[in-house]
Fold:
Amino acid sequence: MRYWLMKSEPDAYSIDDLARDRVTPWTGVRNYQARNFMRDQMRVGDQAFFYHSNCAEPGIVGIMEVARAAYPDETQFDKSSDYYDPAATRDNPRWVHVDVRFVKKTPLVSLAELRAHPELARMRVLAKGNRLSITPVDPAEWKFITERLM
DNA sequence: GCCAACGTTGGC
DNA sequence: GCCAACGTTGGC
Structure:
């Protein structure tokens, strides 16, 4: 089983939205690296941190799990969607996503706190200039955060 | 709102 | 295949 960190802007979709929906399709990823993580490495049962980005208090706010393996993102075919991709076809979809299931809300572990711990210094999400919305989390990092910071 | 960093596009 | 221009991300 692998561990992940997945970003969402809370104005668009927050941990409270997931707590209400319980399961949601993680649509709208339009970055090849992030897509490849979902397509090639994510398996049902993998666990992920829910991270609020581009907001007043960026950081980890909850835990979720992969509920369904990657399948084509319907929004790529929808001309009215912001995520419409004219290059994608039903026969040859370009974008896929997993479904995620709510596990729990957690106390906020802020970006500043993540940066404050040397044990977490190598986290991909903390790398300079990182913009990837989905990044792997090492088991040791997951254990440190869940056991020491929550 | 600013802007550094990054990914993508497209002309050549 | 190069790379300048452009658009997006996301912390601050």
